[in-house]
Write a structure and sequence with these properties.
The structure holds 2 protein chains of 2 kinds. By secondary structure, chain A is an alpha+beta fold. Chain A has 6 helices and 26 strands. In chain A, 17% of the residues lie in helices and 44% in strands. Chain A is elongated. The chains are: A alpha+beta, B alpha+beta.
Chain lengths: 377, 583
């Protein structure tokens, strides 16, 4: 293999695939990135067997070939090179990659490309296109609610439900539920559900920042992998097998108190409360007081720590319904308020022990449910 | 195949198999008989690991000549007369099976003389049948010689292990009885060589020295008796190791219930539990714990070899053992002593104290002394007053300085103390935060969907009984039919854990008589303490900071270890310093 490319392109390609590298694996080749010539370009690949990313960059190919090199070493080296042309040559006998840029030269010991797992690429036409910005927003509004511990593997995934011209993403971790609906440019012929690991979607959100063209979602015929095709990048993820809980049953149908507050002010109050709440199981109380003819309604956000003290923030609120005091985990409130995306947010509550529902005002496509906390002796 | 009644010989061999398993079971049964006979001196001699012969000689009450044959009949005993007596067993044996069983599978020579008879009796049996009977002279007491064990049961004989293994089992039994009966003198000889002898002076510590050696025997702490007479009638005595002495397995925890050695997983756990946070993980204490309780409170008739017992109120016994051991550790455990452990923690010499006070101008000042008149000379101590550190707490320490930005050098009435600043600060913060946690309200986190958890029948019924306790911990749990519980809310501290595991742990804690989730809370607090608050090694401390830390450590309930069980300090006694310098 003999190939030349620009340092900037190589560095950018490596930053896209870098997170898919498995830094600690008993399989040494998973700690490597694959470099392979592919139809006049250079293909970079990395995989941790759950997700894999392929990225193609422009290059001048003199000799075809492929090699894997240790990711950490290679990425650090490329980032240290001057922004010039990089010439790479594989010394086949020793499986060493010789690399020259400007007046530097380096040799990196590699592992035979044959040992690298195959990261699938899309074959033929087909797939479901989605607008990248819409998908990215949806991912940010849903993935944080997925479970991080592996005791219920299903909940570490995000349900993706394709039906007519709609994609619904839902994630839950036992205490909260996030549901976001996205409209598709074209209807799917048969409705279907898949469960995508939340980690894969987070990664997709990260690498699709500069994507302008629609992202094409392709399900493999065996239904165990999903491919996201971007311009010059393909992300592949294993799917989680199983039945996702029926999230529609969890969303309360009605409420007795409807509170609308300024999103930024609410978020700020929660971050203040966190200072004290972090010593007290993150418990934060919301006291919602409807307005009278003389005074507007208000919401008091408070936290108390036995060790450090307490605080209260007051927010103006437009309230329909009864007065209520309810407590939530303030981390959960901060998570959702950070991604609501509208200037105002609505909180629907019924009793101190029934779920609270948070929705952006003026956006019907996002619903978040949080279970309350309770304080007792 | 037709059903037949087994010939008596076969039946008695089968029954014997339950009682006599190996040479050590013979030793156990015969030693128990000797103890029940009121012996003071029990001598055990074996040949070839007991496979060739075992002889147990005692100076007990002996068996009257008229009853000698009867002693070898199955279910004949002098220790029990009515079934009611079974509920109040005070002797070690009671079933009347031992001698008959042993005789059925070996060649026995039984020589005995009752105290009030002039002549003794010699009886020789083979496979349970009497071969010889004659008069014989010997001092009062009984000598039983068992030869060729299992000579008529080749199946059993084949399964005997090496001589060394069988000897080890015999050693095990004899040391257990020596520990249980310190007033009796036990002698054990293998192939003519005495390997163990207990003094028989009624001092358990001396037996421990004979069993475990001088170093361990001197270091172990005597269990502190409970001040109040317990209502349950349970008394716990014995010795436990200080936190600086530990072993790699549970095998060094020896338990006796009413003088009977028992294997009991829960009581063993009670002892280990008492060392919670005091021992490095994976290490176990050494302990000899005697539990005494009214005989009707315990059923010893559950196991053929009587190695297991059943308690009427096992929770109460568990608590009594755990509390007694914990109390002992808190009140008596000394600071680990530097270098080779000394035999004891001797009181400092008056000379040293005087000189120290003269040089430092410091002296311990009892509270009542503050009204001392100005004119009195402060450096003359009232005669006869000896300073003693308050139980469990540290003596007042004077900070001398910091060593390597890691250790605080302090001086106390009994020498020098090296304090690990990180471990000490961890202990201080740990106790403070734990106290605050206990004051705080309990936070509970509701679940999005109720989670059904299937439990074992015991766990389910236990949790159902304690629904109010669960509620106060922050659970919202409902019985859901059968063995399933529906979890609606969890305590916030365990919210991220699998509800099924949490409930199982809680049920286990309840059945062990512990406060559920106490461990979890302690772990969380210990983590918090390590993560942020405690000063690290390598941090230079000002004099005031060190003094504050040492004062706070003095206030701790268990100041001698950090929450992870490592020591917070090392003590170099005055004597040790003097010796090292050759003074």
């Amino acid at each position: 293999m003999k190939v030349s490319c620009l340092q900037e392109n190589l560095a950018k390609g490596l930053s896209i695939i870098g997170r898919a590298v498995s830094p600690r694996s008993t399989l040494p080749v998973l700690g490597n990135v694959l470099l392979a010539t592919d139809a006049g370009r250079l293909k970079l690949s990395a995989t941790n067997l759950e997700i894999g990313i392929n990225c193609w960059i422009g290059a001048k190919v003199e000799d075809e070939g492929a090699i894997t090199v240790p990711a950490r070493t290679f990425i650090d080296l490329v980032n240290a090179l001057p922004p010039e042309r990089v010439d790479m040559e594989l010394i086949v006998r020793t499986q060493t990659l010789n690399l020259r840029a400007g007046r530097s030269e380096a040799n990196i010991k590699g592992i035979d490309a044959q040992e690298f797992p195959i990261v699938p690429v899309p074959e033929g036409e087909g797939g479901i296109p989605v607008e990248p910005d819409v998908l990215r927003t949806a991912i940010s509004q849903v993935t944080f609610a997925a479970a991080t511990d592996e005791s219920r593997p299903i909940l570490t995934g995000v349900l993706a439900k394709f039906e007519d011209a709609q994609l619904t993403l839902a994630a839950a971790d036992g205490f909260r539920l996030s549901v976001r609906t996205v409209s598709l440019p074209q209807s799917v012929s048969d409705p279907f559900n898949i469960i995508i690991p939340a980690r894969a979607l987070v990664e997709l959100g990260r690498i699709s920042g500069e994507q302008k063209e629609p992202i094409v979602i392709i399900i493999t015929p065996t239904r165990n992998q999903v491919l996201f095709q971007l311009t010059d990048v393909v992300l592949v993820s294993q799917l989680i097998d199983g039945n996702f809980p029926d999230y529609r049953q969890i969303i309360p149908r009605d409420y007795t108190t409807h509170t609308v507050v300024d999103t930024a002010a609410f978020l700020k109050a929660c971050k203040t409360a966190l200072i004290f709440a972090r010593d007290a199981a993150h418990i934060t109380r919301l006291h919602i007081k409807p307005g009278t003819e003389l005074a507007p309604g208000s919401m008091l956000v408070s936290a108390t720590s036995a060790e450090t003290g307490d605080d209260v923030s007051e927010l103006d609120a437009s309230i329909e319904g009864d007065e209520i005091e309810i407590a939530f985990n303030v981390k959960y409130l901060i998570d959702v308020l950070s991604v609501v995306g509208t200037p105002q947010v609505a909180l629907d509550t019924t009793t101190p022990s029934s779920p609270g529902v948070i929705r952006p005002v003026g956006d019907l496509n996002f619903t978040h449910v949080i279970m309350p906390m309770h304080l007792g002796r | 195949m037709s059903i037949r009644v087994l010939p008596e010989e076969v039946a008695s061999q089968i029954a014997a198999g339950e009682v006599v398993e190996r040479p050590s079971s013979v030793v156990k049964e015969l030693v128990e008989n000797a103890i029940d006979a009121g012996a003071h001196d029990v001598r055990v001699e074996t040949r070839a690991g007991g496979k060739r012969s075992i002889r147990v000689t005692d100076d007990g009450c002996g068996v009257p000549a008229a009853e000698v044959e009867l002693a070898f009949h199955r279910h004949s005993t002098s220790k029990l007369t009515t079934a009611d007596d079974l509920a109040r067993i005070t002797t070690l044996g009671f079933r009347g099976e031992a001698l008959a069983s042993i005789a059925a599978v070996s060649r026995v020579t039984f020589v005995t003389r009752a105290v009030d008879e002039p002549v003794g009796t010699l009886l020789r049996l083979e496979g349970g049948r009497v071969i010889t009977r004659q008069e014989s002279g010997r001092p009062p007491g009984t000598a039983v010689t068992v030869e060729d064990l299992f000579f008529n049961v080749p199946a059993r004989r084949k399964f005997l292990r090496s001589e060394r293994t069988e000897r080890r089992h015999i050693d095990g039994w004899l040391t257990r009885y020596a520990l249980a009966y310190p007033a009796l003198r036990f002698t054990l000889a293998h192939d003519g060589r005495v390997v163990f002898q207990s003094p028989g002076n009624d001092r358990l510590r001396d037996v421990l020295i004979a069993v475990y050696g001088l170093e361990v025997g001197a270091a172990v702490l005597e269990i502190v008796p409970d001040d109040q007479q317990p209502v349950s009638g349970i008394r716990v005595t014995g010795f436990v190791s200080p936190p600086s002495l530990h072993r790699a397995n549970r095998g060094y925890i020896t338990l006796f219930v009413n003088g009977r050695w028992v294997q009991d997983v829960r009581l063993t756990y009670a002892v280990i539990q008492a060392y919670h946070t005091l021992l490095p993980s994976g290490r176990y204490p050494l302990a000899v714990v005697m539990v005494r309780l009214p005989p009707e409170e315990v059923d010893v008739n559950v196991h053929p070899a009587k190695a297991e017992v059943r308690f009427r109120d096992s929770d109460a016994v568990f608590r009594a053992v755990q509390k007694a051991v914990r109390r002992t550790l808190l009140e008596r455990s000394p600071v680990p002593i530097a270098a080779r452990p000394l035999a004891a923690w001797p009181a400092p010499s008056a000379q040293w104290r005087e000189r120290r006070e003269r040089l430092t101008g410091l002296k311990p000042r009892p509270a009542g002394e503050q009204l001392r008149l100005r004119g009195e000379r402060p450096d003359v101590e009232a005669p006869g007053r000896v300073f003693t550190p308050p139980a469990g707490k540290l003596p007042p320490l004077r900070v001398v300085g910091q060593l390597g930005a890691t250790y605080i050098v302090a001086e106390g009435p009994e020498g020098m103390y090296l304090i690990d600043q990180h471990a000490a600060h961890e202990r201080v913060l740990f106790e403070r935060l734990l106290a605050e946690r206990e004051q705080a309200e309990v936070a509970s986190q509701a679940l999005l969907e109720p989670v059904p958890v299937e439990l074992t029948p015991e766990a389910a019924s236990l949790l159902e009984e304690h629904l109010d306790v669960l509620g106060s911990l922050g659970f919202r749990v409902e019985p859901f039919g059968g063995m399933t519980m529906l979890v609606r809310a969890l305590p916030a501290i365990v919210a991220e854990t699998d509800p099924a595991r949490v409930l199982e742990d809680v049920a286990a804690a309840l059945s062990a008589g512990n406060v559920p989730l106490a461990d979890t809370v302690e772990e969380a607090v210990a983590r918090q303490v390590c993560k942020r608050a405690a000063v690290k090694a390598g941090q230079i401390l000002a004099q005031e900071e060190m003094e504050k830390l040492v004062r706070a450590l003095e206030q701790c309930a268990s100041p001698r270890t950090c929450p992870h069980g490592r020591p917070t300090m090392i003590h170099l006694s005055v004597e040790q310093l003097a010796r090292e310098f050759g003074r």
